[in-house]
Specification:
There is one protein chain. The protein is of the alpha+beta class. The chain has one domain: Outer membrane efflux proteins (OEP). Helices cover 63% and strands 14% of the residues. The strands form 3 sheets. A 4-stranded antiparallel β-sheet has the order 2-5-7-8. α7 runs antiparallel to α8. The longest helix is centred in the middle third of the chain and has 68 residues. The two termini are 30 Å apart.
Length: 438
């Protein structure tokens, strides 16, 4: 008989061999943790999120600059060939010139009171923190994609091994039928049935190989390695841990740990500061100014030090309704962010509850599939014994082979669904980066 219990455990030893480049560096014994690490380091979405984080940091620096002193220097040397003093209000003096004018000065401007710049800084800080968390969230999502791709390879490898075992069993039963036919205890129809069974099994092997190759290519793409790289997976398609948190504890954990909620809170905070920034358009701003200059005819002659200090108060009296419109716009953005956050809380709770229900169902499916597999194996044993003893034709034997093949496939699918449900639960809890199959 064909041993079945070892089926999912050795499926992981298959090589993802598709047009392998002999010069490529082989990734042997690739674990799920290594796959996740490769995906996080190589994925485009994470690189884009990192670029957006740098953009948000630059926005913060620009906002800080608005609150710091602004110092600029200017220098000019001018030659005036003729100047009409009458046109300047000095009647009767006529024209003067030519003459030279030199001016070099430093100008300092410092905002003393500017609520707009302060609110803009706070808003940009919240957006920067949000961008940092979005980068982490991208890593969580990419980790889940890598884990699902890894699991798909394990599933397709186990399926391939399963149908190969079906083909081997069909060939053994064909040999048995031919032996019984030669002994005169089986008919040509019995042999024809087994030949049909062998052909069907071979077709399933070819289809399973294509699915396996496709899964391997997709895993390579997700983790960012060359598509012709030789890879062997170290983890196993097994049940792993069966200890899971209670529903209430899991929901509380997700509400505390899910990055989407913290991002939502930061977006609400950023929207509040943006509204404050808009409202500050009605408020006055106060600035201090100072200048120090050398003024004269030329840099090396006739120059003297001059300067001034002062304060400037700017009070917006009428802006054509622009400030009010900006306030309304910012208020709408804040309301939208708050509504989105409230809905996200419900979505997180829904994700956790659904993931736990799917996981509990998957646990039962694995147990049921294992029981069905053992019964199908027993059925095949009895059918084979009856046929070997010359009792009846091989219809029972072919039916038993079909039942065993279906039971093998169901167990592989049940194990894959179970581990996919574990991945979904880890993602729902916000713990995907630390997920393990063990």
């Amino acid at each position: 008989m064909i041993p079945i219990k070892g089926l999912p455990l050795i499926a992981c030893s298959f090589s993802l061999c598709m047009a392998i480049n002999p010069a490529a560096n082989a990734l042997q014994n690739l674990t799920l943790a290594q796959s996740i690490s490769l995906a996080v380091n190589n994925n485009l979405d994470i690189k884009l999120a990192a670029a957006q984080t740098e953009e948000a940091k630059s926005a913060v620096m620009q906002s800080v600059a608005a609150l710091l002193p602004h110092l600029r220097g200017t220098m000019s040397q001018t030659r005036t060939f003729r100047e009409n003093l009458d046109a300047q209000g000095f009647a009767g003096y006529g024209y003067i010139g030519p003459f030279d004018t030199f001016d070099a000065r430093l100008t300092l401007v410092q905002d003393i009171l500017n609520w707009n710049s302060y609110a803009k800084l706070q808003s940009s800080e919240q957006k920067k923190n949000s961008a940092l968390l979005k980068q982490q969230l991208a890593a969580e999502q990419v980790s889940a994609s890598a884990a699902l791709a890894y699991m798909d390879v394990l599933r397709s490898a186990a399926s391939l091994y399963s149908v190969q075992a079906d083909e081997k069993l069909a060939r053994e039963m064909l040999a048995l039928s031919q032996e019984r036919h030669s002994a005169g205890t089986a008919t040509g129809l019995d042999v024809a049935r087994e030949k049909t069974r062998v052909a069907q099994a071979r077709s399933k092997v070819l289809n399973a190989q294509v699915i396996f190759d496709d899964a391997g290519l997709r895993l390579r793409h997700v983790i960012g390695i060359p598509l012709d790289e030789d890879v062997r997976l170290a983890d196993k398609l097994d049940t792993g841990t069966t200890s899971f948190p209670e529903e209430s504890i899991a929901v509380a954990c997700a509400l505390n740990d899910r990055l989407e909620l913290e991002i939502g809170r930061l977006e609400v905070s950023a929207a509040q500061y943006s509204e404050m920034e808009a409202k500050s358009g009605h408020l006055p701003t106060l600035s201090a100014t100072g200048e120090l200059a050398l003024s004269g005819i030329k840099p090396d002659s006739g120059t003297g030090s001059v300067g001034d200090i002062g304060v400037q108060l700017r009070l917006p009296l009428f802006e054509g309704g622009a400030v009010s419109a900006q306030v309304r716009e910012a208020g709408a953005v804040k309301a939208g962010a708050s509504a989105k956050l409230a809905d996200m809380r419900v979505q997180v709770e829904q994700d956790v509850r659904l993931a736990l229900k799917q996981l509990n169902a998957a646990v039962e499916q694995v147990a049921t599939a294992q029981e069905a597999l053992e019964l199908a194996q027993s059925e095949l044993d009895m059918a084979q014994d009856r046929f070997s003893a010359g009792i009846g034709d091989n219809v029972e034997l072919v039916n038993a082979q079909t039942s065993l093949s279906e039971a093998r496939a169901e167990r592989v699918n049940a194990l894959a669904q179970y581990n996919n449900a574990r991945i979904n639960l880890a993602l729902a809890l916000g713990h995907m980066r630390t997920f393990s199959l063990r």
